[in-house]
Amino acid sequence: MARALIRTPTFARPGEVVEIRVLLQHPMETGFRPGADGQVLPRDIVTRVEAHFEGERVFAADLFPAIAANPYIAFPMRVTGAGNLVISFQGDNGLMQRETAAIRLA
Amino acid sequence: MTTRRTLLTAGSFMLLLRPAWGTPESLRAAIDAFTGGAPVRNGRVTLTIDPLVENGNAVPVSVSVQSPMTPADHVQRIALFTPQNPLPEVAVFHLSPASGRALVSTRMRMATTQPVIALAVMSDGSAWQHNVNVVVTLAACLEGG
Question: How far is B3 from chain A (nearest CA, A)?
Fold first, then answer.
């Protein structure tokens, strides 16, 4: 399991648009780079990040090798109420990870 | 005997032998696939990126789009493209009225000095763009090192 950091506002007002910041510890190996033995290292990247708030998809991103290592993504979300924000990551080598962050109302 | 002339010829062949990465055709195909063939117009999109970056391994970028983000009129997708990275695509972001605002940020790799292209597709199918030329002093590592 890679370490993921999800930053949400401590408290949000209903209707407010907040920024959610996601950082995943991941090498994002491009598949274009040779290793120490001269062989090209196989691609190992996160290909898809999705955010669901209480079952509704609020954001998704398709990532390519040109995203820097330890991918960082910030996206907006309109707060409709308190609930759980579920961020899921999919990628090469069977990466499938799910993180939950709580949205609390002020 | 190696003369200056043969060395120069060899040098120009070396340039020709560079890998066929980042061709204009692949960039155009990637942009067409993203926009669905809609004509791309300038405006509405703002790409924020440093015009001079020291380290191409992690370049902060953010894209904002002027849009009311209502169910009738919102940004559906935002994408970043580069002409000279090994692949033209950098990322595709999917937004919806639940986003409330069209502003996304990430960190990208840049293989060399080149323009960065930000594109947005609206809910009515129109496509908008903003390009910024970026000078990279240390490229993201592609060929060893």
Answer: 32
**Residues sharing a CB contact under 8 Å with residue B15, sequence separation 6 or more, in sequence order:** none
In the numeric block, which tokens belong to residue B86? 């090994």
Task: Report if residue A26 sits inside a domain.
Answer: yes
Domain annotation for chain B: domains and CATH numbers: 21-138 (2.60.40.2470)
Our count of domains for chain A comes to 1
The pTM of the full predicted model, rounded to 2 decimals, is 0.87
Q: Is B105 on the interface with A (CB under 8 A)?
A: yes
Interacting residues of B16 by C-beta distance below 8 A, sequence separation 6+: none
Cross-chain residue pair B106–A74, CB shorter than 8 Å: yes
Contact A73 B100 (CB under 8 A): no
Question: Among candidates A75, A40, A48, which has minimal Cα distance to A59?
Answer: A75
CATH number of the domain within which A99 lies: 2.60.40.10
Q: Is residue B19 less than 8 Å (CB to CB) from chain A?
A: no
Contacts of A59 in chain B (CB under 8 A): 93-96, 99
Beta strands in B27-126 (DSSP E): 40-42, 45-48, 52-55, 59-65, 75-81, 89-94, 103-108, 114-122
Asked if the model's pLDDT at residue B99 lies above 70, the reply is yes
pLDDT tens track for A57-103: 999 999 999 999 999 999 999 999 999 999 999 999 999 999 999 99
The interface predicted TM-score of the complex, written ipTM, equals 0.93
Tell me the one-letter amino acid at A55: G
Residue A87 lies in a domain: yes
